[in-house]
Design goal:
Largest sheet: 8 strands, mixed
Order of helices and strands: HHEEEHEEHEHEHEHEHEHEEEE
Helix content: 25-40%
Oligomer: single chain
Number of domains: 2
CATH class of the largest domain: Alpha Beta
CATH topology of the largest domain: Fructose-1,6-Bisphosphatase, Chain A, domain 1
Amino acid sequence: MSLEQPFLKVTEAAAIACYPWIGKNDKHAADDAATEAMRKAFHSIEFDGTVVIGEGERDEAPMLFIGEKLGTGKGQKIDVAVDPLDGTNLAASGADNAICVFAAGSDKSLFHAPDTYMEKIAVGPKVGRVVSLTKSIEENLDAIAKKTGKKMSKIVVVVLERPRHDDIVKRVKAKGANIKFIQEGDVFGAIITAFDQCNVDMLLGTGAAPEGVLAATALKILGGYFEGRLKPRDDADKARAIKMGANPDKIYTIDELVKANDNLYFVATGVTDGYLMKGVKKVGNEFVTHSLILTNKEKKAKFVENKHNI
């Protein structure tokens, strides 16, 4: 049984629940609303789901925590990587690119790690596996230029605007390529490398690990490439990673982060207007949602607009 439509209802419900909190400067309320709506929608679906990467362990997170069971417990065993509201500050301030998003794969297919940081490199299918975290920034830029035939002055690298990325920015610019800054939400920062209309060639930098697995799932479906290396915040983070079987020193390829090639799903619904989707809107007595669905069966992006009676 395809879970595409039931899964779509999960992110739509979460986005609609966020709507009253857009621009209200209360990121916790927005996140809580998305989480509870997502959890309720998941539990109405006939599948045996487990959160393998989410917002912390049970004792630390009231959110969708690592190890939490989702669904009715009957049917397919599914791994879930989740971020109920990617871009909490964006939603709170009413800024662009807040989304409700999750990815899913068959049992034991998605990388299992603590909610910590991850160093990332991501590209779309036109670049593919010529880049790697084992290479320097300059070598990766040269590889992109050679593979795509682009002049260095036309290559664009998307980076979270953080002080920790100052060296990346400096080296990319010194090479003659361009920087596109994002403020938050690097799930779509990675994914837009696969969409020509976004004119982005590569994502570099360190962000949250859950967003890394989400992005890796989407890029695997679309034929792009992703690598990640955990960057624990402290010794406790490192110990949790090791306990879960992860190696903080290892560079994980896309095929190690997303082991399966079947039963892969990536579903996102816009909360605010963004790169690829419009945000949720209220029109009369209806909510209008815009979503992106990716599945391994179709291997291409499907954009869906739905109307929901209040």
